[in-house]
Design brief:
mainly alpha, 2 domains, two-stranded antiparallel sheet, 9 helices, 2 strands, flat
Length: 256
């Protein structure tokens, strides 16, 4: 099966790719904190953050369509949570609507918060796409471990990324087998078949997990994430970290 890996562009050669994974993780975390702490009405700071992350995406040579597609996949989950804010936030009413037996009102303050949440979420998503697309997952996990992230979280992320594609393959084969048997009938029959597929997929996942665990024990697996690359801070990491930190601090001082 063909899958879209989150680190598919990690083999490119650019300034961002040559940075240590720990440098990129810390810079991404600082960027996200700066975006989240930016006041709601300070749109100039948001514009600066957008210019900063866009410049880094261009330097990293990531395809614009790939970045936009990745951000749109995650963005609906953000809107699903924030879409009710304009109806719940008190303030000056922007409009009222009748939905069946209820009358709901949208406020300007709620719309402002919704736009603020959407902009902040999109900027943070861009930074995470930049981090994941320019760093091999093994190196990123190794860097996170050296930064003090608990080993159990590192192992969970490692196995999740390794076997999520196996699970997707299994689900696609089950769907192909269902369609080849002229899947149809009423809605109730379709829901019953879908429920059986989900149950079967869960049982197969559990059994595969048990067999993988047994194979790990037989091979003496420890709790180490091994890779051929040795991580180390270089002069380019220090230069990038200082420059990036100055931009973030300057935006906080100037625009806040």
């Amino acid at each position: 099966m063909k899958h879209s890996f989150i680190d598919k562009y990690s083999d490119l050669d650019s300034l961002i790719h040559r940075l240590d994974p720990r440098t990129k993780f810390i810079a991404s975390l600082a960027f996200i904190i700066s975006v989240v702490l930016t006041p709601t009405s300070n749109w100039r700071a948001f514009a600066l953050h957008l210019c900063l992350v866009t410049s880094l995406l261009i330097i990293a040579k990531l395809p614009p369509f790939y970045v936009l597609k990745r951000s749109l996949v995650i963005f609906p989950f953000v809107l699903l949570v924030a879409v009710f804010i304009p109806f719940l936030k008190p303030g000056e009413i922007a409009g009222s609507y009748n939905i069946w037996l209820w009358q709901v009102s949208v406020t300007y303050a709620g719309l402002l918060i919704l736009a603020n949440v959407a902009v902040k979420a999109w900027l943070c998503i861009f930074s995470l796409i930049l981090l994941s697309a320019t760093t091999k997952l093994v190196d990123l996990l190794k860097g996170l471990k050296q930064l003090g992230i608990p080993k159990v979280i590192i192992l969970i992320l490692s196995f999740m990324y390794r076997y999520i594609f196996v699970l997707v393959d299994e689900a696609m084969r089950m769907r192909q087998a269902r369609d080849s048997r002229s899947f149809g009938g009423g809605r109730l029959r379709q829901l019953k078949t879908l429920g059986n597929m989900i149950g079967t997929l869960f049982i197969r996942s559990y059994e595969r997990g048990e067999s993988i665990y047994a194979a790990m024990l037989c091979r003496g697996f420890g709790d180490e994430i091994r890779s051929l690359r040795q991580l180390g801070f270089k002069r380019i990491d220090a230069s990038f970290g200082v420059a990036f930190g100055l931009v973030i601090i300057s935006s906080a001082i100037i625009f806040w």
